[in-house]
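Thought: the user wants the 3D structure for the chain below. I'll pass the sequence to the structure tool as-is, report back what it returns, then summarize two notable features.
Action: structure_tool
Action Input:
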Amino acid sequence: MTRKQLLTCLGLLALFLSPAQAAYLSFTSPVSVNSTDIGPGVVFLTTAMAYAPTDRINISTVGTVCLQPGDTFCTNGAGVVVIAGSSPVGGSLLNGSTSFGSLLMGNATLGFFQIFPTDASNGLGSGAPPTTVTRDVDLATLGFAAGIGSGEALEFRISDTFSGDNSGSFRVSDLSKQVGAVPEPGSVTLVAAGIAGLLFLRRRRA
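Observation:
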């Protein structure tokens, strides 16, 4: 086997084994979302490309928003109560299909969807819920069943119906730049075996 043939085989092998990567919806961060941003919200991105339902967002939110007077009924980004008010610590209240105080994403055309689930992973039922919540999720699971088209102005907003006595804010960050596809161990082994085999054949024919 010639050197050229060897390099061609290695290139094809690497291409075959390259892991498929979903695109991440990326935005400039951090973004500050105030408790009064219940609509209109904060425009954080106008998409420059279309995103498929299988594409993803990797996001974190730090802080609390308080929805009742005296800095009470304060929730994390998942709508789990961190400081008691109408609901005790570790509880939540529904605002239609979302939880009061949760962080929403979308726009008037696509609809708004809660980013972080109100569940035990984000402190539901806990006596000390976290004030930092993170999620790496595909757009379809988030609620964007058809994906997100190019040119869409996307907003963050808080799930609430009245903002006159609200306080606090969320600091929202894009974590997608920390993500990279990693080949499975089996693929790495197969690549190594393929290279070793090709080198062996070359030496035998030399």
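Final Answer: Structure generated. Residues 1-19+184-206 form one domain. Helices lie at 3-17, 139-142, 185-205.
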